[in-house]
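// run 5 | inverse folding | seed 20
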């Protein structure tokens, strides 16, 4: 099952045909994998922040199928970092000292 429901992706993109369904499922899975890697958490289709970020990423991949164009360099869609920031697992490198046994 795709990470992002296909009917939701198609509604977001205002796509009413089925020719691109396989491609849209692929982009949805890629977006979910990116969200999971960015946050350090499994993608949760019930988490509105993850789903919205996934939809923004899917739309960008669908509308701009090349990583870079001569007109502009590829950037993440506006808001993806903001949506996922509260969910991101923070890694500081700090590890507390183990307590000494008496």
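// decoded
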């Amino acid at each position: 099952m795709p990470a992002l429901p296909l009917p939701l992706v198609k509604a977001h993109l205002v796509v009413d045909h089925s020719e691109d369904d396989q491609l849209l499922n692929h982009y949805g899975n890629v977006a979910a994998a990116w969200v999971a890697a960015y946050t350090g958490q499994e993608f949760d289709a019930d988490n509105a922040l993850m789903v919205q970020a996934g939809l923004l990423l899917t739309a960008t991949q669908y509308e701009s199928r090349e990583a870079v164009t001569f007109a502009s360099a590829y950037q993440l869609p506006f808001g993806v970092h903001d949506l996922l920031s509260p969910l991101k697992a923070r890694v500081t490198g700090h590890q507390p000292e183990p307590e000494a046994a008496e």
